[in-house]
Specification:
Elements: H1 3-34, H2 43-60, H3 66-73, H4 76-103, H5 108-119, H6 130-175, H7 181-190, H8 198-217, H9 233-249, H10 257-276, H11 295-307, H12 316-327, H13 331-341, H14 356-359
Helix pairs in contact: 1-4, 1-6, 2-3, 2-4, 4-5, 4-6, 5-6, 6-8, 6-9, 7-9, 7-11, 8-10, 9-10, 9-12, 9-13, 10-13
């Protein structure tokens, strides 16, 4: 056997091993995306979602109103998720095409036909060689498994979506539209529930635990938008956390430990989601670190609460320090996730670089507080 023959068989061996490696990587990627119940960064998933994000961003920038942009971005996650199994099956097809070419006299075109026929179970192009038949059956089985995984994945993600959005929409009853923490507290006071919010904080503590798990193990869920363009899971999280912070720092009432636990549950959840998406976050913020909320905005919120008869603590300076000390735990994560998901306007919870007029969800000016 001469050197050219050795090089030829080494090439065939390299192509065979490359094909097997590609198929193995694709199968493991599918398992990590659709089956593994823990956070996992998968290159295929990232490439697909990042690629479509650039396309959708280009289209969204041409939208004249936020409602138009929301309609565009509403398709981003579903379309990206739709193409995930297509990309995975395409990689399986290419991997087995390499295998068929390496172990048989078939040409590249014939290997492609054989791989496509086996993967899609068409039976239009087959080969009677025993070794090739084994790989054909294996490829057909993998194709069916990938489709089955997607079918099982969709009900899981939509079940988590429904649970998330139920709480988001219920929040509107208390916090208005767009939701605000002062409106939540004022309405609770007017209805005599300000001292009976233990169950409210407990429910949202559970909600935060659920989104931490679902929005990292089912990463696409973070980009599924609410059915209504003026609602968002990010702004809902921010309103609840800010309400708890105002309640503990400024409202003159009994100290509710469940509100404090709700804040801790919330900032831990947002931090883990921000870490997963490699967004800016704070590992161990100090109480005196700057936050996105200005002192004037805090004072305006306090004046509104006073106008609604909510009892406030007299030392406003201490109230501000305490509020900022709570807010700093989730401030950076909240704003980062609002920017990542293009969340709609909410006074303290959305992208602070954009005014409500720019976001076009309401005619109110930034910082204006009204019922």
């Amino acid at each position: 056997m001469g050197i050219p023959d050795i090089a030829y068989w080494l090439l065939r061996l390299a192509v065979f091993l490359g094909g097997i490696s590609l198929v193995t990587y694709t199968v493991l990627s599918g398992i990590r995306i659709f089956v593994l119940p823990r956070p996992a960064r998968v290159l295929v998933f990232q490439l697909v979602f990042n690629g479509f994000r650039r396309l959708f961003d280009m289209r969204a920038r041409k939208a004249e109103t936020y409602a138009d942009r929301d309609r565009v971005m509403a398709l981003y996650a579903p379309v990206s998720l739709f193409f995930i199994p297509i990309v995975l099956m395409s990689l399986v097809l290419l991997g087995f095409m390499a295998v068929y070419w390496a172990i048989s006299p078939l040409s590249l075109v014939e290997s492609l036909k054989l791989s496509g026929s086996a993967l899609l179970t068409l039976g239009s192009f087959t080969n009677a060689a025993p070794l090739l038949m084994i790989f054909e059956f294996t490829e057909a089985l993998l194709g069916m498994v990938l489709v089955a995984l997607l079918i099982a994945y969709l009900p899981t993600i939509y079940s988590a979506f429904t649970r998330r959005e139920t709480q988001v929409q219920l929040l509107e009853v208390r916090a208005g539209t767009p939701p605000s923490p002062w409106e939540l507290i004022a309405r609770s006071h007017r209805n005599g529930e300000l001292t009976h919010l233990r169950d409210f904080w407990a429910d949202w503590q559970v909600w935060f635990a659920e989104i931490e798990e679902s929005h990292t193990s089912l990463a696409a869920l973070a980009f599924f938008r609410s059915p209504r363009p003026d609602l968002s899971w990010v702004t809902a999280a921010g309103v609840v956390l800010d309400s708890a912070s105002l309640f503990l720092s400024t409202v003159d009432t009994y100290r509710e430990p469940r509100a404090a636990f709700c804040i801790r549950s919330g900032y831990l959840a947002l931090r883990q989601i921000a870490i997963f998406f490699e967004m800016p976050h704070s590992e161990d913020p100090a109480p005196a670190d700057p936050i996105a909320i200005e002192r004037d905005e805090f004072e305006e919120a306090c004046r509104y609460l006073e106008s609604q008869g909510v009892p406030l603590l007299p030392d406003r300076e201490q109230c501000w320090r305490d509020f900022a000390g709570w807010r700093v735990n989730y401030d950076k994560e909240l704003i980062s996730l609002a920017m990542l998901t293009m969340a709609p306007y909410a006074p303290w919870s959305s992208d602070r670089s954009l005014s409500p007029t720019a976001l076009n969800t309401t005619s109110r000016q930034a910082g204006q507080i009204s019922r």
